[in-house]
Model the fold of this input.
Amino acid sequence: MRVLGIESSCDETGVAIFDTEQGLLGQALYSQIDMHAAYGGVVPELASRDHVRRLLPLVRQVMSEAGTTPEQLDGVAFTAGPGLAGALLVGAGVGRSLAYGWGLPAVPVHHMEGHLLAPMLEEDGPDFPFVALLVSGGHSLLLEARALGDYAPLGESVDDAAGEAFDKVAKMMGLGYPGGPRLAKLAESGTAGRFRFPRPMTDRPGLDMSFSGLKTFTLNTINDLGGVAALSEQDRCDIALAFQEAAVDTLVIKCRRAMEQTGAKRLVVAGGVSANVMLRERLDAAMAKKGVRVFYPGLAYCTDNGAMIAYAGALRLAGGERSGLPIAVRPRWPLSELAPLSQDAS
Done:
């Protein structure tokens, strides 16, 4: 099965072609970061308009790169949610229209399921069942993945997502947009132990998470030092390190509890924050003590991309799922609402 995948849920336009026998045949990604940086965050209307400009040229580029004609495709997959409504409508409209014009089945893909399955694009990817930690700018979620579409929530953030907290703290410190990676880079030069930030909601049972209080604690620390304008470069590095350690430790503690609660021996970590080096190092060390193997997507597949949508779409098409003619998107779409499907592809 050969599937064209389209991702347009936020500020990146991704297109890819995945073949269940030959693997990833081609992909392209256009990031809108430079455009949104001037505004300090994503502007939904600008994001939608840019997807309109970029999407069809990227489709042509990837089709050429993969040496694939429409007659060689078996389906088209597109992100139907969650995400920005206008941005989703662009990808869904193009994907559904291409499928209709080419006489192919189309399938809507849940954005977070794409992230969940992204580690399976690697040569030695995980098999079901497993526990997954999905961490990005919009989501922090622990779940038990029993089979394709059979996902049981274990815990989630009750306020800011982990990636959102990274970006907001970076903005407090004047690091620009997107701030998470810049904050992590700054933390590399931090002095360990100078500041000790709280590990929120780890002193009580349960797997829910909270990062809003940690964000406020960081702001109070900055103000105690005289405000952001008064910070030295070393102050900024030390604060960045203390914040990152607290956020990472919180995620590690929750993952350890989830593995103990479920008895699972495989942990999948995906989403933009899964690229964080400290998170990977501390999770690997903690899970090794439990006899748990951790799976991550390649760095190219941590952030939004078309490959994960093409792959997830191929599995769902193989399971018999199809989209009707009406173009519909779901800006809010709980992962737990997906229906379990059998799968013949891997």
In short: The two ends are 10 Å apart (CA to CA). Residues 233-262 form the longest helix (30 residues). The longest strand covers residues 23-31. The CA atoms of residues 267 and 294 lie 5 Å apart.
